[in-house]
Amino acid sequence: MTSSRAERGRGASLILALSAVFATGAVLPQPLSGRQPAAAAEAVFTVGNYPVEARADNAVAAKDRALSEGQQAAFRSLLRRLVPVTAFPRLRQLPTVRAGDLIEGVKVRAERNSATDYIASLDFSFQSKGVRDLLRREGIPFTDEQAPVVTLVPVWLAGGAAKADSAWTSVWSGLDLEHALTPGKLQPLKADVTADTVNALLAGDGGAMRAFARAYQSELVLLAAAAPDPAGGRLNVTLTGRDAVGAFTLKRAFRLDRGDPAYTSELAAVVLLGILEGRWKSIRSGTGPGAAGGGDLLIAVEFRGMGEWQEISRKLSAIPGVEELEVAGLSARGARVTLRYAEGAERLAQSLSQQGLGLRNVAGKWVLSLQ
What we know:
single chain, 371 residues, six-stranded mixed β-sheet, 14 strands, 30% strand, flat
């Protein structure tokens, strides 16, 4: 079977994120007005550095099994990356999906094998359109836009001092920071970041955060501090600084696995990355259809005949900034369309009103018609 500490950690914890997309039935994707989807960031559709392992009667069978099980597990990780936690239960209701049907490519980072075993770290790239279509068809909200890159500074706290620790840094470098919704760039603790600055950062001091940002010449920089507490059987971690959402300080404690203390560090890093992704998904999806931040929208279109429908579809597709516009269902008097508009539904409504179209929120759902 495919298994690893990273796989257990990936599903361990993510913070609550809210959805801006609602479901109104099955989606039957088809192009609207011949408009081609705009190019979008594809990095998040790759699950990188993913560990696979399998045993079989021979080396070829072991590799085939590892790839098959690994791509299915990586696909589950991809869905958890894109979908807010509030919608996780709906992922369990997805029809059986063969991850192999959505694979774009596989890249080998490292591998080793014997006569009966295959162990590797792989990058699984999935078809972005296929994944989006699946989630839209099932009415499951998702976010696939990456946040700006944040600088991550791992430090180890011991004996009242903060220092670089190769094991703690290695845990972070083993994560898929490049393809995460909140990509990160690792940097060592700089010599001019004093112990007093670190302690002030851990306390959430705003002045220390500004000094920290100056030291790394970036507004988006986070200190990831780990402090072991052997007596209490805990690993205390603090994530503090500023990400794309804003300044914050988070403290968590993890039970030390005395038989495998490295697992505790790995779990902590996975959870912290999940928290960063959850914060980003929260503002990208917002708290409802009209929340700022944009993203995917599902809109019910009302019309009195096909002439009106053609007029509405033509005007809608011509709005600057409207991307990935598709029909999700069509009848004689109505339609459902999905689209992406970065500035959010309220701003879209303003643009549409200038074209004689009215977009209104009716009981939490967006409805579009001629004015």
